Amino acid sequence: MDKTIKEYLDRAAEIIGDRTSSEIAYDDAVVEALNQGRTIKEALAVAGEKHPSEAIKLDNGNIGDIAAHYEYLKEHTRIIGMLQKQRKR
Fold first, then answer.
1. Cα distance between residue 87 and residue 22, in whole Å
2. How far apart are CA 4 and CA 74, in angstroms?
3. How many Å apart are CA 24 and CA 85, to the nearest integer?
4. 58: three-class secondary structure by DSSP
5. C-alpha closest to that of 76 among 22, 17, 2
6. What is the residue-wise DSSP string for 6-18?
7. pLDDT in tens, 35-63
8. Residue 31 CB neighbours (<10 A)
């Protein structure tokens, strides 16, 4: 594996942290809704309906941090998809 890619993946793992399968499913639902053009509040609501046990409690004080986290996950998901396509070639 390329050193730069390994460093990226290691850093991403530090940022994202350990997640359960249900947390991953919730995060994936948020990212999917964001990719559909929904706002962060709408995306969280959609994911919360699908995975109520993982729903994040938000308020105006933490919405910016939550939005930044999911924008990072959205970009990370895009990068991982590109890397997987490259590996298949």
1. 27
2. 20
3. 21
4. coil
5. 17
6. HHHHHHHHHHH--
7. 999 999 999 999 999 999 999 988 889 99
8. 20
